[in-house]
Amino acid sequence: MTTKLYGSLEAGGTKFICAVGNSDFDVVAKTQFPTTTPDETIAQVIAFFEQFEALEAIAVGSFGPIDIDENSPTYGYVTTTPKSHWSNADMIGPMKKALNVPIYFTTDVNSSAYGEVISRDGVENLVYYTIGTGIGAGAYMNGQFIGGIGHTEMGHTYMAIHPEECEFEGICPFHKNCLEGLAAGPSLEARTGIRGEHIPLNSDVWDKQAYYIAQAAIQATMMFRPEVIVFGGGVMAQDHMLKRVRDYFSQLLNGYLPVPAVEDYIVTPIVPENGSAIIGNFALAMNIAPEAEGAI
What we know:
By secondary structure, the chain is an alpha/beta fold.
């Protein structure tokens, strides 16, 4: 009997990661390559997945913004991204034509959120942020992703400015002082002239960044009342950042709402090595595979 296989594509602004796995979420093959032009990059995706005759379905978690409205003429497109060459690029159309399998299309943070939900016993309501080169977030509530005519863009909500942040305007080309503009990794170098990994831990720039990330946790708490908020991405992989964010969150919430203990409520991914999106994508692909009875 042939083992059924499921595909995962993490389409990032820096790199694409392709993986194939089985129904036990075991990765049987994986590759990655830089994000170059759409034609070149998508051709590499197709070449990878074409190797697997038993492939049942693929789930794609992509950087955005993207069009996820299946009734839209630009469904499957990356839309107004600042990423060079990718604005209004059709990602899913060429894949469907070449591979002829069902494809689920969502944001990379939705894929990660779903991977975290199915990896945590008893959790049904979760918000996932990635804090890296950019900032995005996905919310999974009671069996579905939050979104209407499109996916959420929680990385571009506006922030209350830190009391000592007088001159820094933010780096987002669309909104300046939104969450991404003030707290994404490149904002550290924009403020200091030093790459984040070389900034001393006693620099006050870390507290400023944590102040904005904690506001994101406040917003998620007020809007969605999740059971847990997960912060992934390279910035939050540093232990000192998690503590700073938790401390600011507690100050800003000021006892207004009951939430779990902050150590259990504001956390980093449970899936090691940033593997949440792969697990989430495998599960999303299983949900749309032929004869599947999916949760999404």
